[in-house]
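Batch manifest, entry 17 of 40.
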Amino acid sequence: MNSDQNPVTNAPVAPTYVELYTMVQQLSEQLKAMSESQRQNASSSGDNSNRASCTTAEFRIVPDLNKTVKEFCGRETACEADDWFESVNTLARINNWPDGYRLQFIRSCLVGAARNWFLGREFENWDDFSKKFKSTFSRGMRVTDKWNLMQKRVQQKNEHVVDFFHEKIRMCRELKLSFDEINYHVLQGVYSRELAIFALSNKHENENELLGDLLEWERLNALRNGISRKDDLVDKRNEKSNYSSKKSEKNVTATVNQVPLYVAPHRRETKTTTTNGELPSSEQVECWFCHKTGHVGRDCSQRLEKLTCYGCSGKGHLKRDCPARSKAETNVTTTGVTVDNPHRYLKYGVIRGAVVSLLVDTGSHYSLIKQSVAERVGLVIEYATQPLYGIGSVTVPTTTTVGRALESITVEGVEAGPVTLLVVPDDAQRTELIVGRGWLDLPYVTYYKTSNDLIIKRIDKNCLSTSTGNADITSSTDAIVHVTEVDESLYREPLTEADFKYVSTEATRVERDELLVLLNSYRDTFAKNLSELGCTEMAELRIDEEEGSKPVTCRPYKVSLAERKAMAEIIAEWKSCGIVTETRSPYASPVLLVSQKGGKSRLVVDYRRLNRQTRRQNFPLPSMDEQITLLGTGQLFVQLDLANGYFQVPLAKESREKTAFITPDDMGEFTRTPFGLAGAPGEFQRLMNVVLGELRGTLVKSYLDDWVLEASDWEDMLTKLELELKCLRKAKLTLRPGKCMFGTKEIEFLGFVITKGEIKPGREKTRSISEFPRPENIHELRGGF
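Output type: structure tokens
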């Protein structure tokens, strides 16, 4: 009964606050004692490694990840992919990164195709990622591919030798080549021939010695180039005076005992030699451009046929090779008579697919060719001697021929059949070929001289044109109609790069030559002056007046003597080109001069009174905002501008008298649309829509006479440009070359600058702000607001 009545006497009793405090103090003293005991044991121990492990704290160096690992896009080579992966793997291993952090770091470094590859897959761990990455990007390269890459790696002209050396060494080591082979391939690829000879003369035990010799030669060469020598001018003069004699004595030889020195591919000359030291025959030589035998790329007609000289505007050569730059002599053999304007008669021709320089000599009965040129082009020579007599003696021959050959000659695209060529020694004439009357008198050849060129044309057998060009003569025989009078107005000077406002300087010379060839093939669509201005037949402007209108009659405005002289010159030019004619019209609108940029003046007729009584011809103009927006994404632009656009639209005959104008000295009426008529903009825009047709708004963005087209690259630009030029030729319209731009990345169109997808206000709009004077005090600042 007592136990049942007192059940709580055995329950645990909670300690008091004092007891808890006492227990905490005891435990603290025990911990201090244990720590002191461990410290004493560590200090008394002689094990340095244990002591270091107990006293040294662990730390890590966090690298700059932005500089340690570069981005990976997936287009790298297998070697670059392996190197990138090894960089990431080494960094992760040193810093003990967990798999999750490694994968996240990889994700931040991937861009482009590699990032899409990563996002499209799941990776269980780092090993799984490594296997998938190597199977996709670390593709094994064949030994042949590695070998080809190693051989192609050569030092460029301005490349430092250290950059080339170490990359070449790495490629050789990947192929597991011996040092002797590495040494051989490195010297093959160096740019300087003298450097290769210097290194070959020394023996190297390892790569460091080889690199040391290369750097030492570079240092000495730089020091020598910085020293000016007084004997240099004398040596150069001696070399120039002895050039011809040394050239004749030079022979290309190679002996069996002589070790050939390898020359890098980019330093090799076009001429090659056979194993016995002789030059290969024309049948063995192969052109690198057209892959045909019989000539080399330097003489390939297909490569040179599109080239245009900017000096003489001739075709088939560049300005640096222009024959007009050097004085030429015309002779039958060796006479020394200087030709007036020699570039007219010095041209380029084609014989058996090879390009040769020639002189058109109307005083020579025969056509003469150098012996070396005849052998080079592969002519079949019939060896026979024949004396040739020139100026000075009719009894003693000037030279003697080596032989003769029968072959066709093409000059400026004219091929008239085979002609007899006399083969003469090389020292008998300067030019490679002299074209005489034997070729010029062939039935299909005609030629005439203009003010600055000698034009050679081919005439058909049954259709020969008269001098006026209005009638054809049909002949049943091979008779020749000799041209006695030529209309030089039909001839237009070829366009050069200097004629245009801008031609891309980033384009290669070949690309710019292709552009000039295209533009000159559409030469009739460009007008350098008013005499070349086009006149369309697709539209004409009519001036319809309101009923009851009376002729507009005004007195001429008062102008100064200088302005009267300028007006007379402008009107005289218009009359000479047929834009303005004499008139007896009752209409007379006054004129005034308006100043333009560059100090020039523009003659403008005040048609305000005539416009008040003219019926409006409404036609919508393109939206300027829409045109600019469509060009906002362009990368490469062509900007064209019509030459005197209104002057290329004829006036209706019954409307011409209404455009009559009066000056203090003269009167006249327009045959073409003048500037200032009320209906001119609408009618002109209607014409532009008809001319462009389906190209409007798609390939070409236009606003009145300003045309712009955009392209993705140079080839695309030429293709679209030709379509536009075809439209101009069909409409008989002409452009102003001085305002045309080709291949530009920035244009100013309708008052806005468009470049690289950006549209900004034009320079004229921002000039007032940029040139606003800087306020000097508070009053000027307030005045600006």
